[in-house]
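Subject: Sanity check before I submit

Could someone independently write out the structure tokens for this chain? I want to compare against mine line by line before I put it in a report. The sequence has 675 residues.
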Amino acid sequence: MSQEKAQLIAPIGIMTVSGMTATGVITATSFTGNIVGSAKSLVNGTDVTAGVVTGTSFVGNLTGNIQRLADSAPNINVGVTTATSFVGNLTGSVTDLTSQPAITVGLVTATSLSGPITGNVTGDVDGDVTGNVTGTIAGNVTGNVTGNATGTSGGLGINYNGGWTGAGTSQVRAGVVTATFFHGDGSNLDGVSSGPVSQQAVTIDGAATSIDLSSGNLIYATQSADTTVSFANTENGNVYFIRTKDDTSTARTITWPDRINWEGGTAPTLIQDNPRSTDAQVFLLVTRDMGVTWYGKEVVNIDPQTFTSFVWGRGTNGSLGLNNAQVSYSSPVQLGETGAWSKLPQISLDYDAPTVALTKTDGTLWTWGQNGSGQLGLNQPAPTQVSSPTQVSGTNWSQVAPIHDRGMMATKTDGTLWTWGDQNYGQLGQNLGPSGTEYSSPIQIPGTTWGTDSAMGAGSYRAGNIKTDGTMWMWGYNDEGQLGDNSRTSRSSPTQVPGTWREFSRSLGQGTNLAIKTDGTLWSWGSAFAGNLGIGAPDNGKRSSPCAVGSDTNWTRASAGYKHSGAIKDDGTLWMFGSNEFGQLGFNQSGFPNSYSSPKQLPGTWNTISCAREWNIATKTDGTMWVWGQNEEQGFFGRNVTAEGDISSPVQIPGTDWNDAVAWYYAAMANKIGG
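---
Independent answer below. Compare away.
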């Protein structure tokens, strides 16, 4: 048939001739037009073919209807074409069936097909599919797949566009999935799912951090600034977020997206004091709705919160805690059990024969040394000294610091603050005024928002604490303006220091204070000698209000000694200033002419600094420990040497993996990570 157009009129009525039900059939080399056919009211079982074309090329529409089959199950083909090339639509419908015939609707076999197939597809499909799929799929799936996919899927998920409705609830059994990209966590797949995990490195150094998840779902994040995290190009599945902090003790915060539902109801606590780059936290984040809702939990926490402590130096009055009263040691000796202790107290004890205290990982508090004023907190003024760690009542202690040699201050995990010992200058903060009253058991200072760890400092007959809102409070002896309240009046209750603060000095020297504000600036006040305030003034004056030490905004840790000071920046650089009479600044020189009234950098990359009376102990980021300065009591430098004098450059104490260290008059204490 060669006419340009043809219209075949379908027979109407009851077809009773056996084997003769053919409606709209054409065989042609080329055909352009429409084939319309219908078969209705068939009463017996015949083969029905409606709208069938076999040709080299066909352009047009095939439409066929089969209605009201009364009984037996004929074979029905509606809208069928076999062609080398086909462009158009296949539409077919079968209605009013009373039995279960074999029905094929909209079936095409072709080398090339341009046009949609609408409906359910059963069998193997090679091409694009919209709708429900049962069988083998090779190609792309475009649109929503609602329901279950059963069978083997080769290439499922390649350039997948659209949502997977019910992905979290439907049962998907697809056997083995091999794909360039697979979106999902595999939790609903029975079988083997193989596909690469893509990783990326992220540097968190600003207030906002956007992470493009299309660049990798395994995030290695190094954090050096407080930040708010957001995600871009989110897909269904898992995100592993590995966080390491810069090599400083500066607290770093992460504000997570509000839509993360954390295990336990709140986001995990971040590691704050992380001197080793290998320390890390790993968070698992899962989404099933393309990032609208997340579920998160902490799966790894490598935080050096357990330590083994070591002591050495002069053991006067049992101050080393080694169960002897007078024996001295020239090398570090382990104190107590391996891995039992928490972080060191923030002290640099500017006096001999002190009272010493530490907390353990189980929240217990232990003291030893002098006890003449009840400063051990044991509810008794006697014995006058204890040479081994003895427990103070309570199990939720957080951090502790001695107040000179006759008092003690400690915080609990509930935000409460406690003091005990001698009250002669109001240094217990109990609003009792200067008196000789002594307390041998902890008594609480009012409030439940007192800070712990870096927020607490104590020194010569005075103490202070930074509350959780950033306000700083000090009390005690104030003859040199060391309370920072613009007066020289001693205070027996906490008095606020102006400003918003982040960290106290790791020690409060004889009459000098250092502290760091929330903006990273460094401030000093109190007694000034040979430039130890770092403000460019070498005089011996006094400052009763905080003075800025330069204008840098990246200070992280500071320590005030007797006549000199040291501070560390977030890049690990150590800066020294003040008196250098005994080489305590570490610049390979000594004497008053070599003192510095402004910070001067000491080579190296440092983690901690503790300035004692005329000497220092410090740790580097590589875990080594160093000492320098006055060595009057030979052997207390911990180097197993008793015949060396003053040292004007840092020298190493043997050992590695040192985390923190503090010094007092003729002795020192240091922590190693873990056991």
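---
OP: Matches mine. For the report I'm noting this point. The chain has four domains: 1-118, 120-196, 199-302, 307-673.
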